[in-house]
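Session log. Operator J.P. requested a structure for one protein chain; no other inputs attached. Running the standard single-chain path with token output.
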Amino acid sequence: FWIEETPFHWSDGSMYQIVLDRFNPPQVEPKSTPSIADRWGGNLQKVLEALQQGYFDQFAIQSIWISPLYSNPSGRWQGVEGGIARYQGYHGYWPIHPRQVGKEWGQAETLHKIIALAHQKGIRVILDIVLNHVHQEHPYVKQYPQWFTPRGCLCGRAECSWYLWIETCQFTTYLPDVRWEGTAVIKQQVDDALWWMEGFDLDGLRVDGVP
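Structure written below.
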């Protein structure tokens, strides 16, 4: 528990947002530099090293927000603009497992070390979680098809405005949209979120795609 003379509020100090794949990725030869849509290789170990070296201290950071840590699919996938498949899951927002630190991000033990050291320094840590959708490779898609809205229109297209269809539209055809009307799916999503929250001693969650 945090015991402080002055109650903490998230807006009182600076928050550092980390898109993990882009955080201090390994250096590569210019001829093999990945495209902006590819994985660059940033991982949890880089964040731990930054904490150990005092990187966040110099900015008086009070909280760190880390992008989703779910396993994401391999390969390239089509973007909302159509055309060839060119995007990798470098951002973490295409979960294929509900309770697993993806191998692409590193080890769960490293996350434990990050949060423990951050807390020693008085820095809170929040994690991005995805409750609006999953990737089509996620086990829930096959196990519980009733948890997802029937394949609808694609968000933001001319015939599928965000204003009219935001509750049921899909970001892409391979991201099934979670149907929040059912008690079972709500319980499962909350339980999965608590697995991250309690298991890693997080200080909060940033919930993606709230609308």
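Operator note: Helices lie at 44-52, 108-120, 139-143, 162-165, 183-199.
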